[in-house]
Please model this.
Amino acid sequence: MSIDFFFEMLSLVIAIFCYTALKQTKMVYFIPFLLLTVIVEFVGYLAVTYGIKNRNYWIYNIFNLIEFLFYAYLFASNFQLKFLRLLAYASMPVLILFSSLNYIYIQGSENFHTYTLLLGSFFMVFFCCCFFYEWVLPEQITQNLIRQPFFWICVGLLLFYLGSVIINALFEYLRSSDMIQEGKRIYVFINRSLNIILYTSFSISFLICRKNRKESLSQL
Model:
């Protein structure tokens, strides 16, 4: 197993460890989500190990859609401005519709759905920017942003999806015959690094939830 899988597992373990604090918020849904993530990654690892990699793209295509819908729901739950909440909720049927059309008419069932990934990545980056915008508004700017658990979720998502857009845009070039071996190593290295950043940010968020709850209880 790769090192980024270890960080996924660690993030799940920390989420379970912080369950008492997370259950007070929508963050508790990260526990089943991360469990699903670990299962999907383990199935993908087995597929590569037994030489059936090209047959398991459908698993990642479905999971990517679930992933985007989950994050969109979290953004909708954390936005303060009503029109941003509506935008986050509106993105969910758009993603479902586009993913379905992509499956039926464009990239099919046997290919990795890069178009859906690009659209979902755009939404995630946009929502992250919207979240940061909300926190520079006059009524919010006096609060300590780094003590907000969802801030760290946004940091991880922003870096992850910006990096993903760039690396997937260069995917065909990296697979070109003149640099196929080096390109593969570059792609794997960047992808694993982005995963480590993402799941580390999740873990920090869970620990901040726990720390904030302990501080609030101590003040009672």
Remarks:
- The chain has a mean pLDDT of 87.
